[in-house]
Design goal:
Layout: E1 3-6, H1 8-15, H2 19-34, E2 43-44, E3 53-57, E4 60-67, E5 70-78
Parallel strand pairs: 1-5
Antiparallel strand pairs: 2-3, 3-4, 4-5
């Protein structure tokens, strides 16, 4: 089973979001990591400077890397702003 870890920058970003969005994102992350392969729900990013993969959760994106059994969350934000 996988675990997700927020980097400090991603933690600051998620705290700025509305409470209902935070709850939705964390519920989806828990759902994704309990599956046998969370990458089935992810898309690979073309620009690997931001991270390797992303989850789409409504209008929000979660940018992450996968290291062994850890899903390292690098950025969280609205789809218009997260890639900047």
């Amino acid at each position: 089973m996988y675990q997700y870890i927020f980097r400090s920058h991603a933690e600051k970003q998620i705290k700025k979001l509305p409470r209902n969005v935070i709850i939705r994102i964390k519920e989806k992350l828990r759902y994704f990591i309990t599956s046998p392969n969370p990458l089935n729900f992810a898309s690979q990013l073309k620009n690997s400077a931001l991270g390797s993969y992303r989850f789409r959760i409504g209008d929000y994106r979660v940018i992450f890397d996968l290291e062994d059994e850890h899903l390292i969350v690098l950025a969280v934000g609205h789809r218009k702003e997260v890639y900047k």
